[in-house]
Amino acid sequence: MRRQLSLGAFLMATGHHVAAWRHPDVPADPMDFSSYRRAAQIAEAACFDALFVADSVAAPTDALASHSARSTYFEPLTLLSALSAVTEHIGLIATATTSYNEPYHVARKFASLDHLSGGRAGWNLVTSDAAAEAGNFGRQAHIPHAERYARAREFQQVVQGLWDSWADNAFVRDKASGLFHRPDGVRALNHAGEHFRVKGPLNVARSPQGRPVLVQAGSSQAGRELAAQTAEVVFTAQPSLVRAQAFYADLKDRLAAYGRHEDSLKIMPGVFVVVGHSQAEAEEKFQQFQERVDPRVGVGLLGRMLGNFDLSGYPLDGPLPELPPTEDGQRSRQQLLTELAGNEQLTLAQLGRRIAGGRGHYSLIGTATHIADELQAWFEGRGADGFNVLVPHLPLGLEDFAHQVVPELQRRGLFRRQYQGRTLRQHLGLQRPTNPFFTERGQP
Amino acid sequence: MRRQLSLGAFLMATGHHVAAWRHPDVPADPMDFSSYRRAAQIAEAACFDALFVADSVAAPTDALASHSARSTYFEPLTLLSALSAVTEHIGLIATATTSYNEPYHVARKFASLDHLSGGRAGWNLVTSDAAAEAGNFGRQAHIPHAERYARAREFQQVVQGLWDSWADNAFVRDKASGLFHRPDGVRALNHAGEHFRVKGPLNVARSPQGRPVLVQAGSSQAGRELAAQTAEVVFTAQPSLVRAQAFYADLKDRLAAYGRHEDSLKIMPGVFVVVGHSQAEAEEKFQQFQERVDPRVGVGLLGRMLGNFDLSGYPLDGPLPELPPTEDGQRSRQQLLTELAGNEQLTLAQLGRRIAGGRGHYSLIGTATHIADELQAWFEGRGADGFNVLVPHLPLGLEDFAHQVVPELQRRGLFRRQYQGRTLRQHLGLQRPTNPFFTERGQP
Questions:
Q1: In this protein, which residues make up the domain named Luciferase-like (chains A, B) (predicted)?
Q2: Fold of B6-273+362-428
Q3: Is there a smaller number of Cβ atoms within 10 Å at the N or the C end of chain B?
Q4: In A, residues 56-85, which contact B (CB 8 Å cutoff)?
Q5: What is the full DSSP assignment across A389-434?
Q6: What is the CATH number of domain A6-138+209-428?
């Protein structure tokens, strides 16, 4: 079969466009579960590989937070657990930070979601990118970038070790003899490292996927290296096909050093999509959101995306001020936006408006044919193995993509017409990992 | 209307009887979501107030863990979030420890569940009761009892403060002006205490119930005092009506010191129930489980319930050995079981078998009439405001209770025939708490 692309539906309350909630067609409550259920069911009917949910463990506190719909939202694991009960096939990828969590809790919750969903869980491993998060966990200041990644690497090792606590066939459940699991089918982890001491074993059986799919989004050097070592899916923001190809080649090249095949890691750039039956209709649709952007709100979002800088003191019609390199985990995004502002000579207000929809992701505004052409070019040109799809408003923007772009991708033989497997790994074409601590017969 | 009793369905994988999984009618997989969904739907059809799920953050590692079905299970918040999507009315009470968690995470997840479920979340606040948990969170030894409670009290204060981060009417969502929430409708907590420093605000809007219902189960002096100060529901194990009455009176008497009315705290003893159409049928049903108890497994469970003692070295037909007072948070249970063994001159094996079903909770084995008589006597004799119902096997044991005992309680006018409200607070007859940080108009 021809190589197939993967699609993730990046869910975010009212939609990705910062002004989406002001549109008359958009339900303006980011804590309305029925909107998420609707979006999940639209994505599943279109055979998306997965839903994806971002996260932060702090509320934004900048001056214009009051003008954005992003201050409150569902906690991702509770949200995706609820969605697992009203879907059957689609993958469920939640973000959880390694900076302010305990690996035992994280291992456990994702393993639990994998069981609840019959093998559809994915963990988007991040390091915390907002200084505000530190204050909610007893810290005065944010953990520096290098230390965050060292902690993340060890965190991932512990989580993976806990996921492998049980042999797949440990549970014999012999009603006659009373033996529920083989005593040698379980092992303590006894991890003692620089950041964590974790005994184990996990109190969740090895999960349907062996391990939930490991997703990452860091694009810094440290982020790429951690991804090459451990990730199975990488989300990324790439401004052009050329840059996407460079990123793709760089990351795939790093795999060999860890003994990994290039198919064992899927690269899925984000793409912001507005679909119309004509180019004019798509642009008109986009304008309906753009014209609702309060410039101060756009600049507020910009400040957050650049690394939590307060830009409210700078003139809206002036240039992007020079900023120190952020320690806030958005360094790659900061570089990307600084370049964009310089290349196109954008004012602060223009740059804020520019990212109000796609938030720095590649934007496609046009007909299904045009969008499919671009996605195909990226996919066949080895800039992407698939895409994480951002739409301006939810759930309706996803319906536009599902009803117009997906059929076009299917006609071209690039995307499935029905699910072939049951698990997220199967959708993505990823192997189920064996458990290194036990033989195939489940012996230690 | 006549005072109504409350019913909780205490869900535990294959059921509460330690040998339940060996019964031919019982699905033996504790990680099968469909069993939980079935149980939840049975309980909801019978108008139970809530589902209740216990928790531990460690797998049991004693020698006979291999002969029990309790080594692996769903993480409660993911499980109840999934169940929230397939139920409409029933409350969802999850256990989470204050000993090895961060208050920001706990506040957030329960608030998220409260939103997902339209106001049905409850938090069973516990201190960790198993030394094994310490090792999964970087600690060499368990936190001593007194310190656990001091930490728990501060933890609860932080969580409650975070739940009150937002005024109920902060969210104006004015599409025309672009104002999403009033800037003065949110406040940082800025908590700085002995155990926690938490800035806030929470990134979840104030939840449908104002705050999720606060449940506790500690019966020690420290536990009772914390409950009197903060709890809205108390689960407890009481061996007789006389003892239940004493506990009930003691706890209700403590409320006045905190300016609380006695109706603001509901006391729900656990009751283990086996129902038959005749006394003989009920006993025969119970025997089908009892005869499947491996005495060593019964004694293993007993050791855990006494405070994680290894009793495997003692003769099965000898008496319960003298044990030092446990530091493991099961002190009240230890006293109760030591008394029981002494009063009835039970051997170790007999005591293990005795707790194999009800685990120290009051047991009722008989017809629906008999069981309803007992529940009514406890309820009207002020030994209970309701009951947390444990059944030997799930989901079928719950069906017996729902189809036989519930109609009898309804005929007597003691229990609702249909839900009157939408939220767990409404089911339980608890007030929705006002937010002390904001005026009724939502001003600070």
A1: 16-385
A2: TIM Barrel (3.20.20)
A3: N
A4: 56-59, 61, 65-69, 71-75, 77-79, 81-85
A5: EE-SSTTHHHHHIIIIIHHHHHHTTSS-SS---SSHHHHHT-PPPP
A6: 3.20.20.30
